[in-house]
């Protein structure tokens, strides 16, 4: 159930992410008064353990309150998966990913529809969805469309950007019907630099007089081609995290060090892993149309899995919970 607040609860910006469910009662849409219209839309905690956006917003709002000031611009704030935040996890077992609910019919259609219906009733200045990175990545912006406004907003955060067409159920794509919208990946959870980077970005966004415009040539732009999934039920691990004896009992051993080459071009033939079952039974690569394109990206020679083409990996993670809930990584190409 969506909770709606015409103004922030008095203790909101002194409340840690883990206590927001008790304060708010569930996912919440909150109006924050500022000096200019139209409002900036902000979303945080779509993934319950990605707390840098919330911490940064609390810091910005507390700083303003300490001098008796209000934001330069009105804000509509969406606080997402507070139930998962209370447990310190990305999402709860059996729960839908809050960044995969913004299109189609499913168990959370009512929540998503109510948020979007309320936003449709007002003009929005711009929209910013804040996430922590999955895996070791540089900080970058995710775009679901390319135009002068989204590129201009992206450049406020990083020269690195990714155009993502799939999944098409993310919040940023749903918001693009209302205003220029971007997602920012601000760095790892728990890194103070992630919060500091987000504070700087929020202060910049809140003081914008107009949405900046820029050409795509100013970005180091990548296009997401496909997502890589470990097939459910497969026993797997990473080569640098198990002993040879332990590795022998797994169906799939993934090559060590792939996380370190996120956003770096790698060549065809690069080792990706070793499978004791046919490749089709351990790994699956799906393109933006949800088609199985495993053979276009991965080769299996006597169990040795390698890349079939040059590409750029992104969001490669060794977090098994994230792999189960989302994916192992994305394969991209530079635009």
What is the element layout, followed by pairings?
Layout: E1 3-5, H1 20-24, E2 28-32, E3 40-44, H2 52-66, E4 75-79, H3 82-87, H4 109-119, E5 126-131, E6 140-143, H5 148-155, E7 160-163, H6 171-175, E8 181-185, H7 192-206, E9 220-230, E10 236-238, H8 244-247, E11 252-254, E12 271-275, E13 283-287, H9 294-297, E14 298-301, E15 304-307, E16 312-314, H10 320-325, E17 329-334
Parallel strand pairs: 1-2, 3-4, 3-5, 5-8, 6-7, 7-9, 10-11
Antiparallel strand pairs: 2-4, 6-8, 9-13, 9-17, 11-12, 12-15, 14-15, 16-17
Helix content: 10-25%
Shape: globular
Broad CATH class of the largest domain:
Alpha Beta
**Name of the CATH superfamily of the largest domain:** Zn peptidases
Key attributes of the depicted protein:
335 residues; alpha/beta; Aminopeptidase; 2 domains; 12-stranded mixed sheet; 10 helices
Task: Write up what this structure looks like.
- The protein has 335 residues and is of the alpha/beta class.
- It has helices spanning 20-24, 52-66, 82-87, 109-119, 148-155, 171-175, 192-206, 244-247, 294-297, 320-325; strands spanning 3-5, 28-32, 40-44, 75-79, 126-131, 140-143, 160-163, 181-185, 220-230, 236-238, 252-254, 271-275, 283-287, 298-301, 304-307, 312-314, 329-334.
- The strands form two sheets. Strands 1, 2, 3, 4, 5, 6, 7, 8, 9, 13, 16 and 17 form a twelve-stranded mixed beta sheet that branches.
- Strand 3, helix 2 (52-66) and strand 4 form a beta-alpha-beta unit.
- Helix 2 (52-66) packs across helix 7 (192-206).
- The model has no long low-confidence stretch (mean pLDDT 96).
């Amino acid at each position: 159930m969506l909770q709606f607040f015409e103004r922030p609860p008095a203790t909101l910006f002194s409340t840690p992410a883990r206590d927001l469910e008790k304060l708010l009662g569930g996912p919440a849409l909150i109006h924050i008064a500022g000096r200019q219209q139209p409002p900036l839309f902000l979303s945080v905690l779509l993934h319950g353990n990605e707390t840098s956006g919330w911490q940064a917003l609390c810091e910005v709002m507390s700083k303003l309150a300490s001098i008796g000031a209000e934001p330069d611009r009105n804000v509509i704030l969406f606080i997402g998966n507070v139930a998962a935040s209370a447990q310190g996890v990305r999402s709860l077992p059996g729960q839908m990913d809050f960044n995969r609910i913004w299109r189609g019919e499913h168990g959370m259609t009512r929540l998503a529809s109510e948020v979007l219906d309320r936003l449709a009733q007002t003009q929005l200045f711009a929209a910013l969805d804040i996430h922590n990175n999955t895996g070791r990545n540089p900080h970058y912006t995710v775009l679901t469309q390319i135009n002068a406004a989204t590129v201009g907003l992206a450049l406020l955060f990083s020269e690195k950007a990714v155009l993502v067409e799939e999944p098409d159920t993310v919040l940023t794509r749903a918001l693009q019907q209302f205003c220029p919208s971007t997602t920012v990946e601000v760095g790892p959870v728990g890194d103070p630099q992630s919060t500091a980077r987000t504070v700087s970005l929020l202060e910049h966004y809140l003081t914008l007089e107009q949405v900046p415009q820029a050409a795509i040539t100013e970005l180091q732009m990548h296009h997401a081609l496909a997502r890589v999934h470990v097939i459910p039920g497969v026993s797997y691990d990473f080569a640098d995290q198990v002993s040879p004896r332990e590795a022998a009992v797994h169906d799939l051993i993934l090559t060590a060090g792939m996380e370190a080459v996120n956003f770096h071009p790698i060549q065809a033939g690069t080792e990706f892993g070793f499978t004791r079952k046919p490749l089709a039974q351990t790994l699956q690569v799906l393109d933006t149309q949800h088609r199985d394109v495993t053979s276009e990206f991965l080769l299996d020679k006597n169990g040795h899995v390698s890349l079939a083409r040059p590409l750029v990996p992104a969001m490669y993670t060794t977090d098994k919970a994230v792999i189960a809930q989302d994916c192992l990584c994305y394969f991209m190409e530079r635009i």
